[in-house]
Amino acid sequence: MTIYKARVPTNIAFLKYWGKSDEQTQWPANDSLSMTLDLYTETLASLSPIEETSHALSFRSDQDLAKSPLFLQKGLRHLKFLSENLGFEDALYLQTYNEFPSGCGIASSASGLASLTLAALAAWTGSSSFEELEEKGFARERLAHLARLGSGSACRSFWGGFVHWEKGLYPESQKTHPIFPETHWALRDCVVILSDAEKSMTSTDGHKLASTSPLFQPRLELLGERLLQMREALARCDMNTLGPLLEQEAIEMHELMATSNPPCVYMTQSTVSFLGLLARERMQTKIPMYFTLDAGPNVHVIYEEAYKEKVQDLFKDYKTIDVSIGSGPSLSLV
Ligand code: DP6
What we know:
The protein is of the alpha+beta class. The chain is 39% helix and 24% strand. The strands form 3 sheets. Strands 1, 4, 5, 6, 7, 8 and 13 form a 7-stranded mixed beta sheet that branches. It has a 4-stranded antiparallel beta sheet with strand order 10-11-9-12. It has a two-stranded antiparallel sheet with strand order 2-3. A hairpin with a 4-residue loop joins strand 2 (20-22) and strand 3 (27-28). Helix 2 (69-86) packs parallel to helix 3 (108-125) and helix 7 (216-236) packs antiparallel against helix 8 (239-258). The protein is globular. The structure holds ligand DP6. Ligand DP6 is lined by residues 13, 16-18, 26, 32, 107, 109-110, 151-153, 203-204, 207, 294-295. Ligand DP6 binds next to helix 3 and helix 6.
């Protein structure tokens, strides 16, 4: 039996995707920009024995399985969608494994859905490389597009370095492309885990509320300018410009969440306290480290590789996952 292994990284958004213009086509309300992380979800896939009629998806460790019924549901729905829409009739047997705890504030749905999509397409088409997939009509851009239909942020995980997901003028004209490779700027993300509880509202439900906030429209109007500023700061590897933009963007997304109807509040008192501590430490130590946030209470501290030891030492009393910028997904045979 041939087993295909897809290893796909997570990503952390610098410019956030929050709110959809159309849910059906997964058309985001705005462009987003992310950094790919060196932290992966691995999915193994093979064709099931002939007599199987439905897909089987499981986690490799019991701990993950217990924590992620929602992911299993979303994953199976996505597999069904892919097989029906692409006309692949073979049932698949898949096993997935996160290199990080589920629900810890790291976007596991991005790497999870992306690795599921990649592994499934590899098994269905009998491809063990991106080149082979492309020959069979599944270039990386198409794979990213298919993964996006499972979870929006998944499309940004198909490249390493810094990735721009363009909204385009209509749903079909969306594009995802890398803007700088991981070698351009050695950034790191120290995720400070303040709570590893499953979040109270999924991102998918949160997106639906975004447009109910009075801050939604004004935000959309200023994002074009912020995108340009971020891209310029990335081009110059300029942390003094990028850092404050990251923080402003993260706080604005959380204000938008908190002012939606009903409100969704992901930050906790520990988040707020930690942000205060980070600002004080930055002033005292002069380490250029800045935060960004996802839909959760945990804090992503973005900083340059040269400060790795200092940052790790600073936060040694916290539970952290500290990773470098990543080089993107891989596909192979087991
Ligand atoms: C806050 O991609 O998880 O992480 O498309 O409904 O699956 P769905 O949502 P998802 O939303 C991610 C939201 C975010 C910001 C971001 O990653 O850009």
